[in-house]
């Protein structure tokens, strides 16, 4: 009997190894191990996962397939992952065969408790209905005015005074924490018309903000565990699942109070043409359709999730890159000063009375290019994934079976020599500006996917640029930043590309004398040549793809 069992064991092992050898012959990319697939490599590189994925993609020409579960019957389905950053493949997945690549059951299950069937956690008709409804609101000029109002007020009354106090006291600040607070206040104001004031003197903790952060973190933890395991922990009430349940109750109670209050206010003011509420929640509530409170809560939560972290993360990497590239910083300041001399005169005290207005921000072409270049190198959402419904072949010839998944690496798409040229590693905003320096050039949609692409392209893209330009201009006009000596700048492995240890900076008073002198000398030279065209007033050229606009992963 013992001999029989030993014989069966060795036969099974031999059969498995033969199967394993056969199935891995067609796989490229990281090494695949028996049973564990490519998970050992993923764990080994967990502190540099995005760069590890980019290295594998560069070595494999932009696409590779790997197995995260080398077990028969699973390896070619649930265990198979196709990773790509090839622009043609991205267009195929995100646009051409859009219906074949939904978010899928894994993503929806993980975020269902927090986001329900909101726009960023749904597919099919549910998603399409919300998308169309939201798209109508995002195209209105009043929403842009609302965003400008919330951003300007937060910058003038809280952000700048906090930075000024830190400068006078010679105390370093964690710029990442300040920006997260600022964008959270702004997106809450835009979404449901209330300011939680997380960015205020003392930087006190806000119950709603803290509960939202805990709920988001706990939801992300589910990605690490098999679905069976986290669902068991939820049923038993263990670990982060307890925190998630409590935090969601807190968040929903807070939003329910907001919704009930807003219903009363809208009822009282239904005959008032000067209704002051122009936030997204009020706009949804004013529509003829009768939405449930649960639906309205999920609308608010989905937009907060999309609009908070994404803008602040982009800005934090932008400010760090600016400290490392003084030439770029000087060009940004030169552009800002040029515009302000024309709009506010030579009295520099008037330059900082108020944040820049619409018309002034729209003329900051180089600043927009620098922000876009930041997003190319450090996209706020570095990786995203899709579920494959039916067998398909990608444009590069890669076969993707039904039931498998596709990860498209947004981080890697901005770091490919084949796409961006020999200088892809350089922080060079000029690649976004026309040769004559007069126009901003938007790169092709499937080459630059920091705002997603296709039908799910970010609706808040224009609002995101508006907010980022306003904050960046306000800070750089007033302060010169230096990173605190010894501070480590590293990526945090999360769905959003935070800095692991924040960004600790010292603030120094900005001296604009040399910049202003340069602007005046240039103006004299331009006038003497009879050329009065200024780059700040130039138009935008779209290099390809849809001009529809979104921020966050929809």
Task: Estimate the global geometry from the Cα principal axes.
Answer: globular
Task: Note the quaternary state here.
Answer: single chain
User: Strand fraction band?
Assistant: 5-15%
How would you classify the helix and strand content by structural class? alpha+beta
pLDDT under 50 segments (min length 5)?
A: 532-553
User: Cα-atom Rg, whole angstroms?
Assistant: 25 Å
Number-wise, the strands total 11
Helical content band:
40-55%
Mean pLDDT score: 85
Biggest beta sheet attributes: 4 strands, mixed
Give the topology, please.
Layout: H1 2-24, H2 39-44, H3 49-59, E1 63-67, E2 80-84, H4 87-96, H5 104-115, H6 124-138, H7 141-168, E3 173-174, H8 175-192, H9 207-221, H10 227-236, H11 240-268, H12 280-286, H13 293-324, H14 326-344, H15 348-351, H16 358-362, H17 365-377, E4 383-387, E5 392-393, E6 399-400, E7 405-409, H18 410-413, H19 417-420, E8 440-442, H20 461-478, E9 479-483, E10 504-509, H21 513-528, E11 540-542
Parallel strand pairs: 2-7, 8-11
Antiparallel strand pairs: 1-2, 3-10, 4-7, 5-6, 9-10
Helix pairs in contact: 5-9, 7-8, 7-20, 8-13, 9-11, 11-12, 11-13, 13-17, 13-20, 14-17, 14-21
